[in-house]
Design goal:
The protein is of the alpha/beta class. Helix content is 35%, strand content 27%. The two termini are 30 Å apart. The relative contact order is 0.18.
């Protein structure tokens, strides 16, 4: 579903991604972990068509970026640091607005479905500016999956959430993954990454320095492995 080959991204004279290779199969849930400055957000922005690579090849669902960015965007759901919600609209009004952008049919049924999925059906007619940070993040997930995208990209989706809100977000992500969608999520939380993802990829100095399938992850040794890979 995602194929990245020899990806390079420079900001001026500063290299951030240095010949990165990444392959994500359909239905995989990959967590990208690594220290600040490793290139996690930069990689996600390139996959989300929000930034262009300096060099290298990127294909999503068989379409090459940036040449076929419009085709790729139709297949993506993106959750970034900005919620991109309208505070003076209700939860359901926000979703109806985005549904029109995607020209969805059966809008009311789909809006109800995603609100139930993220646990906000009872708050559907409340203004978003009245929502807590956790509720806004759950609505952001609902917006991202509204059009049933093939690929979901999430950049640190748990940032700023309390324990209860994080647990509810985890449940929503598990349900999305259970439907066979491909998920790529950046995270600083090794335990959460190991719990949610089918694979952990460790970024260091602009490359994938280690890749751990879920079946091979030893939670007790994961921090040690992370330190060894990122300090090699």
């Amino acid at each position: 579903m995602i194929s990245v080959r020899q990806l390079v991204k420079n900001f001026g004279l500063k290299p951030v991604l240095r010949g990165l290779d990444l392959t994500v199969a359909e239905g995989e849930f990959v967590a990208l972990v690594g220290p600040n400055g490793a290139g996690k957000t930069t990689l996600l922005r390139i996959l989300a068509t929000l930034s262009r690579a300096s060099l290298g090849q990127v294909h999503i669902a068989g379409f090459e970026l940036p040449a076929h960015a419009a085709e790729v965007r139709r297949r993506l759901g993106v959750v970034s640091h900005q919620p991109l919600l309208y505070g003076d609209l209700t939860a359901e009004e926000n979703l109806r607005f985005y549904a029109r952008l995607y020209d969805l049919s059966g809008v009311e049924g789909r809006v109800t479905e995603v609100l139930e999925l993220v646990g906000l059906a009872a708050r559907r007619r409340d203004l978003v500016r009245q929502f807590s940070r956790g509720m806004q993040q759950r609505l952001t997930i609902a917006r991202a999956i509204l059009h049933d995208p093939e690929v979901l990209l999430l950049d640190e989706p748990h940032t700023g959430l309390d324990q209860d809100a994080s647990a509810m977000l985890d449940d929503a992500l598990r349900q999305v993954a259970a439907r066979g969608r491909t998920v790529v999520m950046t995270s600083h939380d090794l335990n959460r990454a190991a719990d949610l993802a089918s694979r952990i990829d460790i970024l260091s100095r602009g490359r994938i320095a280690g890749s751990l399938p879920k079946a091979e992850i030893d939670l007790a040794r994961l921090p040690e492995i992370y330190r060894a890979v990122t300090h090699a």
